[in-house]
Amino acid sequence: MVTIDALLHVLHVLAAVTWLGGMAFAVLALHPVLVTRPIEERIPLIVPVLRRFFVLVGSSIAVLAATGAYFYFARFGVSPSLAGSRYGILMTAKFAAALAMVLVFLRIVFRHYAAASDLARRERPGSPRYAEIPVHLKRLTTLVRVNLALGIFVLLLVDLALRT
Q1: pLDDT tens-digit profile of 71-116?
Q2: What is the C-alpha R_g of the chain?
Q3: In degrees rounded to 5, what are phi and psi of residue 127?
């Protein structure tokens, strides 16, 4: 019989894999192919792809937050005993890195993706403002790389915590 803890653990891992795997795919597979194409061909593809992916990431963040909170309170309750152990210190570092990932994600979506998609909707190819889209996409890609590195760091912290 599957327990609630096991189900929540699977959901937590699936949410993390969705987010990290999507970023790895974007950086290692999608981006290298897209940059070989003219910007006029890239924009109609990348804007809807990112929109769908960002919905998945937002859902993943919600699942990670809910399941992470459940596991934290199941293990530590409401006492502030987290900082008193090696496991607690590693989990605090994991939480801080995950929070940084969420903040970077929000910057990606609400600054660079929003600007790029707005320009793609309003401007015609060849217009001076249309040329700003690749700048936003380049910054977005850089931030996705940062988030992927943070995500790998989170995995390292989890591995270290599980060995404690």
Answers
A1: 888 877 766 666 678 888 898 899 999 999 999 999 999 999 999 9
A2: 19
A3: -75, 155
